[in-house]
Amino acid sequence: MRILFAGTPAVALPSLEALRTAGHQIVAVLTRPDAPLGRKRILTPSPVAARAAELGLPVIKADKVDAAAREAVTAARPEVAAIVAYGALVPESALSIPEHGWVNLHFSLLPAWRGAAPVQHALIHGDDVTGASTFLLEKGLDTGHIYGTMTETVQPTDTSEALLERLSHRGAVLLAQTIDGLAAGRLTALPQQGEVSLAPKLTLEDGHIDWRQPALAIDRRIRGVTAEPGAWTQLSGQRVKLGPVVPRPDVTALAPGKLRTEPRAVLVGTGSHAVELGLVQPAGKKSMKASDWARGLANKEDVVFE
């Protein structure tokens, strides 16, 4: 089929490659405009734009599907649009441009976790199983009829970054199979069924750890916001970034936020039992092992995270 591929971050790349491998023709790529990156804020193409350029594919750069973008999409004459983490809503005026509409790969088992951060919310809320869905895009937020799903078991140490990486590859297979089914005329989309939950985009404040919460909730939240937007706490008014922690149910005497150093571990109290810190990044410094960071602290016995 003639496919318009819409995507922006690296998580969309496996889908682009899967569609090419399946023998479909990518007639154009729609992606977000170049963005400033790094300390020098150098304008840099999105991962999808960079790969499309390597492949010699026509690229449409637009931060939203406005009149100019719709004109470019129409000119490409796609039979179907495949969309994976493009980063902007597709207006109703553009949905009917391809004959078979826009097929969205979403990283949840819809209608669970509709929205921009499904993997993060699945981890924060302690889901044991998640997955991906392909569905026909419509005006509502992730409300369209479902073409197919795949499931993925959540591992105890998964971060959103690690889980999304797995889902991006397995979801790419699902998307290619969906497009194959549409091309063969053997696929029908069915209405979503089940309980609806929402997964809005996370803010920096969502990564602020409340040490009064139980250790299980803290563990889930830290893994859910790793790598974006990142977990953090405060010490003496300064922000300290945190990597994933290890629950320590054997230590129950520490007050919430209270730090305790051991010969081979740095512990923090929570609303239930302690957790062991992994990586720590103080303000203005590089990430380091918690034990290395703690050696530089004065009055360790008085340290309390906020």
Summarize the structure.
With 306 residues, the protein is α+β, with helices and mostly antiparallel strands. It has helices at 13-21, 47-55, 67-76, 92-95, 118-124, 160-184, 215-224, 290-295; strands at 2-7, 25-31, 35-37, 42-44, 59-61, 80-84, 102-106, 129-136, 146-153, 231-235, 238-242, 246-248, 259-262, 265-268, 274-276, 279-282, 288-289.
Write up what this structure looks like.
It is a single chain. It contains eight helices and 17 strands. It is α+β, with helices and mostly antiparallel strands and 306 residues long. The strands form four sheets. The protein has a seven-stranded mixed β-sheet with strand order 5-2-1-6-7-8-9, sandwiched between helices. Helix 1 (13-21) runs parallel beside helix 6 and helix 5 runs antiparallel to helix 7 (215-224). The model has no long low-confidence stretch (mean pLDDT 96).
SSE topology sketch:
Blueprint: E1 2-7, H1 13-21, E2 25-31, E3 35-37, E4 42-44, H2 47-55, E5 59-61, H3 67-76, E6 80-84, H4 92-95, E7 102-106, H5 118-124, E8 129-136, E9 146-153, H6 160-184, H7 215-224, E10 231-235, E11 238-242, E12 246-248, E13 259-262, E14 265-268, E15 274-276, E16 279-282, E17 288-289, H8 290-295
Parallel strand pairs: 1-2, 1-6, 2-5, 6-7
Antiparallel strand pairs: 3-4, 7-8, 8-9, 10-11, 11-16, 12-15, 13-14, 14-15, 16-17
